Amino acid sequence: xSGGLFALLDDISxxxxxxxxxxxxxxxxxxxxxxKAAGVVVDDTAVTPxxxxxxxxxRELPIIKRIAIGSLxxxxxxxxxxILLLNAFIPWLLSPLLMLGGTYLCFEGAEKIWEKVSGHGHxxxxxxxxxxxxxxxxxxxxxxxxxxxxxxxISLKAVLDEGLDDSFWYLLAVMVVVAVxxxxxxxxxxxxxxxxxxxxxxxxxxxxxxxxxxxxGLVSGMPKLLTVLSVVGVAAMLWVGxxxxxxxxxxxxxxxxxxxxxxxxxxxxxxxxxxxxxxxxWLTNTVASAILGLIVGALVVAVMHVLxxxxxxxxxxxxx
Length: 320
What we know:
Low-confidence stretches: 1-6, 8-34, 123-130, 316-320
Order of helices and strands: HHHHHHHHHHH
Distance between the termini: 89 Å
Helix content: over 70%
Structural class: mainly alpha
Mean pLDDT: 76
Radius of gyration: 23 Å
Largest sheet: none
Number of helices: 11
Number of strands: 0
């Protein structure tokens, strides 16, 4: 009787350790997958604060909360089931879809540069002021859908590239964790950024000299932070988008030569620069990917702004 009980307890202990190991695996895989999608996450974080520019400060956090809920719904209800079904039944389609998303990232990055150079840019906050909150949230969630889809596909590919468990339920667990964590990180950071100037204003009104200094620094520093985030977001889009296309061309066999050239160049730099080889080799790959991303993005921008359905034509028609 006691032997059977101890055997049962031992079995439970083994199962508990296995469950703990599985949770650790899911957490580790989720972390690595999230890092792979960091470039798109930066862009998502940089874009969202613009949707609440110029609005009543009391409504900023409620609107961000609604956008965050919409983003999580995008990921959990639509995107994760869709990419897991694709992976189960037509996995060869993931790379082309990822390349399509990479092309979109290149386009977004190149278009931001074009708007800056040409002076034809617009601000999401200005658009939001002419509509109600529902319109603002709808527009933000729609934009988020594209970025979230890219984040989740990158994350899935990262997990599959690890060569670990590729069962449906394991991948589902990892994708759910990634979806929740990234949504919390992105919109938690957005909320902090949006309210930072209010925090700074409150501190600047206190009697303490240190509080006033910190508060004034926060108020004056927020525009600079948003500018830095925008620049980093553009660079990240070009780098990530270009790298996705570079790797995708090699994986699909459509045009492996660019990847082979960049990989060979990266190895040469790595071996020629000693202790700094790892960093400089990575930087070589990153710069090459960003250049490819800029070229692809510039081509798409040129097409979008030349054809009749391009944005310039739409803007011209709207002006008349």
